[in-house]
């Protein structure tokens, strides 16, 4: 199974160089999680676990620009890039978003690398409850073992 990230980070609120540092930290962190998860088998109904992570601090009145979206399971979808004509296939993907905003955003931005990783670990652990929204047709996925393995990874990294 592949554990992937789609990252949106607010460089305006934190400064370009700080945003770059945090982006590298986040991408590295998700890479470590993927390395830990990729060879484990949890069943045949989820091939890709995709998290859209929003690290944003929108001004009042603009919060709607970064809406959470509900967990979504895509069994199969074929897409064609309208610019290049390339074909893409999405198969057995579970996708949802995590938002780090407000006070949590400020805490994340000002935190050390280790503390930032702890915040991300906690946000990911909290988000695993989204697995409870899997449709009934997803029968072959061991979500409790997946949750347990994620917690074990974070413990091994001393993040929880």
Number of distinct helices: 5
Q: What proportion strand?
A: 15-25%
What is the ordering of alpha helices and beta strands? EHHEEEHHH
Q: Main beta sheet: strand number and arrangement?
A: 4 strands, mixed
Number of structural units classed as domains: 1
Explained architecture:
It is a single chain. The protein has 160 residues and is an alpha/beta fold. It has one domain (2-156). The chain is 40% helix and 24% strand. It contains five helices and four strands; from the N terminus they run E-H-H-E-E-E-H-H-H. The chain has helices at residues 11-14, 16-37, 102-110, 113-127, 143-156; strands spanning 2-9, 48-55, 72-80, 87-100. The protein has a four-stranded mixed beta sheet. The radius of gyration is 17 Å and the shape is globular. It starts with a strand and ends with a helix.
Concise structural overview:
The chain is of the alpha/beta class and 160 residues long.
Topology of this structure?
Layout: E1 2-9, H1 11-14, H2 16-37, E2 48-55, E3 72-80, E4 87-100, H3 102-110, H4 113-127, H5 143-156
Parallel strand pairs: 1-2, 2-4
Antiparallel strand pairs: 3-4
Helix pairs in contact: 2-4
Structure characteristics:
160 residues, alpha/beta
């Amino acid at each position: 199974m592949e554990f992937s990230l789609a990252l949106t980070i607010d460089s305006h609120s934190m400064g370009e160089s700080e945003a770059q540092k945090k982006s590298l930290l986040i991408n590295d962190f998700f890479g470590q999680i993927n390395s830990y998860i990729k060879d484990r088998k949890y069943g045949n109904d989820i091939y890709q676990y995709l998290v859209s992570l929003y690290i944003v601090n929108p001004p009042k009145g603009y919060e709607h620009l970064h809406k959470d979206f509900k967990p979504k399971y895509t069994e199969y979808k074929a897409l064609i890039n309208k610019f290049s004509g390339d074909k893409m296939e999405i198969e057995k993907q579970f996708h949802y978003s995590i938002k780090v905003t407000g006070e949590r955003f400020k805490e994340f931005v000002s935190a050390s690398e280790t503390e930032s990783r702890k915040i991300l670990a906690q946000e990911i652990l909290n988000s695993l409850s989204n697995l409870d929204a899997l449709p009934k047709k997803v029968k072959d996925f061991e979500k409790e073992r997946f949750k347990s393995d994620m917690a074990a990874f974070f413990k091994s990294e001393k993040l929880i």
